[in-house]
Design goal:
Keywords: Repeat, TPR repeat
Low-confidence stretches: 1-7, 254-258
Protein name: Bardet-Biedl syndrome 4 protein
Strand content: under 5%
Mean pLDDT: 81
Family: Belongs to the BBS4 family.
Number of strands: 0
Number of helices: 15
Distance between the termini: 56 Å
GO cellular component, one term: ciliary basal body
Shape: globular
Order of helices and strands: HHHHHHHHHHHHHHH
Radius of gyration: 23 Å
Largest sheet: none
Length: about 260
């Protein structure tokens, strides 16, 4: 049995640590085999050694570009919670393989999760064009339209309708920070401050460095006259957005018509 047969067998059996050892030996004999690099990268993903996994997957792409390698590289960034890098990888993948519906759908859902509805609609629409019989693509577009209409209703102050639309979107992307931010500010508009804080804290948990979410948390706490909590969140927002004048005015407690910030 050859080394490649041996490592493939270990890989299929889920013995990823043992497989990496054999794959590394095989790579010494053939450094230009993209499949060895790809499978080695996948093994490292299972072992949660993401830096090594990225190195191997990049090597595989350098040798021979494949859709599956892009998908696995994007998954690493998703596992690390870095949506921006994941989007960059999937954008390159779609440029390489523009008719791959899995890539188009994944990229569209990532844009939907970030509240970037126009780009989400573009990619999910393309996925439906190439695979019109896939009911999941139709469902994704339904979620997208609900998110976009919810954002519009929220802008016009129709918070109940907006919340109804956002509930539909939550089925598709339940861990979307912009979605929970918008839901929280709908409750703020309805003067349901406890519910607003609960949703905003979920958004903050999912995106701890998003200054707009911190701003909104500060605004809600200030409205509830919880000044210590308001100071905490507004100070954190200032750390990420030090040139935003409204943050300093809000922190100082000046009389001002404050506007909640939505994530579009």
């Amino acid at each position: 049995m050859s080394l490649i047969d041996e490592d493939d067998k270990l890989f299929l059996l889920g013995k990823h640590k043992a497989a990496t050892e054999v794959y590394n030996e095989a790579a010494k004999l053939n450094q230009k085999d993209w499949e060895i690099c790809h499978n080695l990268g996948v093994c490292y993903i299972y072992l949660k050694q993401f830096n090594k996994a990225q190195d191997q997957l990049h090597n595989a792409l350098h040798l021979n570009r494949h859709d599956l390698t892009y998908i696995m590289l994007g998954k690493i960034h998703l596992l690390e919670g870095d949506l921006d890098k994941a989007i960059e990888i999937y954008k390159k993948a779609v440029e390489f393989s523009p008719e791959n519906t899995e890539l188009l759908t994944t990229l569209g859902l990532l844009y939907l999760q970030l509240g970037i509805y126009q780009k989400a609609f573009e990619h999910l629409g393309n996925a439906l064009t190439y695979d019109p019989t896939n009911y999941k693509n139709e469902l994704n577009l339904k979620w997208l339209k609900a998110g976009a209409s919810g954002s519009m209703m929220q802008t016009h102050g129709d918070f109940d309708v907006a919340l109804t639309k956002y509930r539909v979107v939550a089925c598709a992307v339940p861990e979307s920070p912009p979605l929970w931010n918008n839901i929280g500010m709908c409750f703020f508009g309805k003067k349901k401050y406890v519910a607003a804080i609960s949703c905003l804290k979920r958004a903050n948990y999912l995106a701890p460095f998003d200054w707009k979410i911190l701003y909104n948390l500060g605004l809600v706490h200030l409205t509830m006259q919880q000044y210590a909590s308001a100071f905490h969140f507004l100070s954190a927002a200032i750390n990420f957005q030090p040139k935003m004048g409204e943050l300093y005015m809000l922190l100082a407690g000046k009389t001002f018509t404050w506007r909640p910030l939505r994530r579009l």
